[in-house]
User: Fold this.
Amino acid sequence: MKKHPLFILTIGFIFLFIFCQQQKTIWKGTIEEKDGVIIVKNPKEPIYGEDIFSLTEDLSIGRAEGQEEYMFSRISSIDVDNEENVYVADSVSAHIKVFDRHGQYIRTIGRRGQGPGEMQMPNYVQITLKNELLVQDMGARRLLFFALNGDFLRQDVSGRTGFPLLIKMDSNEIFIGIVILAPPPLGGKIIQKYDPDFNIIKTIAEEKQGKRGVFDIGKTSCFCDVSPSDNIIWGDSKEYVLQILNSQGVLIKRIIKDQNPLRFTEKDKEMYEQRYAEAIQAGYELKLPSHFPAFKDIFVDEKERIFVQIYQHVEGKEDLFFFEVFDPDGKYIAKVPVLAKLDRNSVWKRNKFYTIDEDNDGLPVVKRYEIFWIF
Assistant:
């Protein structure tokens, strides 16, 4: 007898519900308020198992040959508008290419030059709440604004000093950015808030520089991201504590997680010795730790979930990592292997995940994944 589609769908939901209940455990953390700050303390184990989250690739933009509109030199940044059009910044070709939700080329915005609407090295793009395209041109040290149809609107004064790498412009047109103090191995950075004229409003975190001539693999670092509600999430990887600031820069929540630091293995030692072989031969010291720092980076998705990248690799994938995920309340809900490049350039939009990657020949592409949460 032929089964009715509604019957099949109902049975599917029943099995899904049973699976989720089997995956779920009781959260054993605590939430309290102290001096106006919410303190969330999490146990070592999450609420759900790692099968609770998955990605399925459903689009790739970029080709090795053929039409030039689909070829990239070096993709530096991407963003996605409300129509799911994808904006791709090419820092070498010095323009922004736009593709529709099916991956079809629409237009090119900007070109190389120093005149109005021209750029030298676009390193960051963002669709603002005004539906304008913000482009940071690190080559000319200025910001450009375009209509989404490609019309040039305006630019700020070029050539400013202390120009930060943008993390985001929030809904109040306040910028959150990072100033890199020196290239590796010396490093060091400052995370700050800026007004529309790039005057410093607040220093959020400051990372000290390392020792000259030493690649310190265990050196801790400060990381930051900005949520859709303009909250700033940052942490210093010397301890597993996430600081949540509101849009005014006031601390409103602290998320703490109990942990066992990941041990630095012989395999890790071999990998880093190979990676820095040329530097070692040039006289640099490679300082290896007994354990990795608490985490590797921090990202926030469109639902205000926090993804904390840890140093555990996905098996057989040296460039892919596990992430520990916290819900908007700060509860540790899952530790998941993310089988795509989740980094500073990734975009979450309408239950889709966009990232910059490479094809089998090592050429730059943009990939889109459908997100599945099983709870």
Summary: The chain is about 10% helix and 45% strand. The longest strand covers residues 317-326. Confidence is low (pLDDT under 50) at residues 5-22.
